[in-house]
Specification:
Chain lengths: 168, 412
């Protein structure tokens, strides 16, 4: 059954898909998984549309939905079979003249899910520690420790490469 | 030099793969999933606390009571040295020669589905279960018998999967079922004697494993662990200590012992008499692990993970192997991440530090080839099953186009 609210949903989602794919891509580092995540998010959004459309900040609301779906790996089809596969010991970043963005993407992929989400929200979206804590439903202390550990891990993996790549 | 934060901010591109987002499909599945109770994301994600109290609520899972296991731990961590668990003949380790080499073969997905994955197999490796991703979209539960795949038609046309199968070819799984009015969720199903059987549950439930006696273990979304004595039996709740938020049973042994964890923090087994006990914490870098989870059980062996952090996602995780009869817990250095499966010999399959799928026999570590290009992060290939004799292993592996495929390895 279609009604005005369906049209509104379609219009909103169609406009937001590129942004959601970017967010999902930075989180998952993989196009297919990114789309899986977006598809699940917009499905849930449709279910909750009556409530969601009245949210103060709909974009932030949807972003939180996507991030929580990502962090709660049980909701993701592919994650069910790859439990913990995303939190391995970091393998060394290969120095093969890959562009910086690919290197950071690879480095990010080696971080645990929650750490990744914290870094993305804090530095990709410039959210405050408190805002991130609310988004992820955890304490500000946890956000801080994930931030420092995540950055340290990125630095560790990028260190050699960054020096090699940027020293004239 | 750009800082890591600058680099992070530069990641503003869309995936380079073509978009597969389908708004119409989101609406049609969303319509079916529309729930009566709409929990808002804006609020706190409240976990339903379950009020099953204490460990006095013992249930009997075995037809004939076996030796009584250790009294259950009453919430406090405690070692379980000295506890014995009966091992049934089927699980007794025969003197089996450890394989030295494995070859990979793609399991053909029935109906020409382009993607598939394998989640479980019986202890001989003859039957493998999983699901495919048909061209038309959605998911399709599948059982492979000796490599030949057959689609199992579970009710519902949303998400579904078969999770485990026994040596008779009886399988268990779940399918999202619901309607516009009441919303939807996973309903438990068994596949028995060639027929799909709707399993009993108060609401939603997901079975995860079945043993040769036909006993099934699973969980409800609210955090209760369930045991069904048969596909048609009423489920019984697994007892948990007061204060437990979520019981996470993962696998069931032939004698009815269930392995799993509580709140993703404490690896436990429920004995055939229903008594729960916590598995001992292994030592990591000279200190006892902080959190543990058990994922698989076969005979005397349990495998899972341990972490020096309370939230395992926050730190490194280690593969662990427990031996129930001796109460030992050891970190398996040959594997990174938790081991995926243990067999009657105590052999393990998992991912090694280089990201390769491997079979660890104690004597040898045998590499399982990837189907396509190897990825050192260990995401190219996943191992899901291991036969008792070590000759058949199933899992999934990305093919040369990066598409996930169900595979079997033959080892000898």
């Amino acid at each position: 059954m279609r009604d005005g609210s369906d049209d509104e949903y379609v219009e909103y989602v169609a406009a937001r898909v590129p942004a959601l794919r970017r967010l999902a891509y930075v989180l998952t580092g993989d196009g297919h998984r990114a789309d899986d995540l977006v598809q699940q998010t917009i499905t849930t959004l449709y279910v909750k549309w009556q409530r969601a459309r009245n949210a103060d900040n709909l974009d932030a609301y949807v972003r939180t939905m996507l991030i929580r779906t990502f962090v709660d790996e049980r909701r993701l089809a592919w994650a069910k079979v790859r439990l913990f596969r995303d939190t391995p010991e970091p393998a060394p970043v290969v120095e093969s003249g890959t562009e910086d963005r690919e290197v950071i993407r690879a480095a990010l992929r080696r971080l645990p899910r929650r750490q990744r989400a914290v870094l993305v929200l804090r530095f990709f979206y410039d959210l405050s520690v408190d805002e991130v804590a609310r988004s992820l439903d955890c304490s500000p202390g946890t956000v801080k420790s994930h931030t420092s550990r995540g950055l340290a891990a990125l630095r560790g993996q990028l260190g050699v490469r960054a020096l090699a790549g940027h020293t004239p | 030099m750009p800082s890591e934060v600058d680099l992070l901010r530069s990641l503003d591109d869309e995936p380079d793969t073509p978009s597969t987002i389908d708004i119409r499909k989101a609406m049609s599945s969303g319509r079916r999933r529309r729930a009566r109770r709409q929990a808002g994301y804006a609020g706190a994600a409240a976990l339903t606390a379950i009020a099953v109290t204490g460990t006095s609520v013992a249930i009997n899972l075995s037809a004939s009571p076996g030796p009584v296991a250790q009294p259950a731990a009453s919430g406090a961590p405690r070692a379980s040295a000295g506890a014995t668990t009966p091992v049934t003949p089927a699980e007794q380790a025969q003197a089996v020669r450890a394989p030295e080499k494995c070859t990979i073969r793609k399991l053909k997905a029935p109906g020409g589905a382009p993607m598939a994955l394998a989640s479980g197999a019986d202890p001989t490796g003859r039957y493998v279960v999983g699901r495919t991703y048909p061209k038309a979209g959605g998911y399709q539960a599948v059982i492979w018998d000796d490599g030949k795949g057959r689609e199992i038609m579970l009710p519902g046309d949303m998400e579904e999967s078969l999770r485990d199968v026994n040596t008779s070819g009886d399988a268990v799984g779940w399918s999202y079922v619901g309607d516009d009015k009441n919303g939807s969720g996973p309903k438990p199903y068994a596949y028995q004697d060639g027929k799909v059987v709707k399993m009993r549950a108060k609401g939603y439930a997901q079975p995860v494993a079945i043993n040769d006696a036909g006993t099934i273990v699973g969980a409800e979304p609210d955090g209760s662990g369930l045991v069904w004595r048969s596909a048609t039996a009423e489920p019984v709740r697994l007892p948990v200590p007061a204060g437990t938020r979520e019981a996470q049973p993962r696998d069931i042994a032939e004698d009815g012992t269930v392995a799993g964890s509580l709140d993703s923090e404490r690896a436990v087994v429920w004995g055939p008499d229903g008594q729960m006990r916590e598995l001992p914490k292994p030592t990591i870098d000279g200190r006892p692990a902080v959190s543990t989870q058990a994922f698989d059980i076969r005979g005397d062996w349990v495998t899972g993970m341990a972490s020096p952090e309370r939230d395992a996602a926050a730190g490194p995780v280690y593969a662990v192997r427990w031996r129930l009869s001796t109460g030992t817990a050891e970190v398996v250095a040959e594997l990174r991440d938790p081991a995926d499966k243990v067999n009657a010999q105590g052999w393990l399959v998992g991912i090694d530090p280089k990201g390769y799928a491997v079979l660890v026999t104690g004597k040898d570590t045998v590499r399982l080839p990837d189907l396509g290009k190897h990825r050192p992060d260990g995401t190219a290939t996943t191992v899901s099953t291991l036969s008792d004799d070590g000759t058949l292993i199933a899992g999934h592996s990305d093919d040369k186009d990066g598409v996930i495929q169900a595979v079997v390895w033959r080892c000898g």
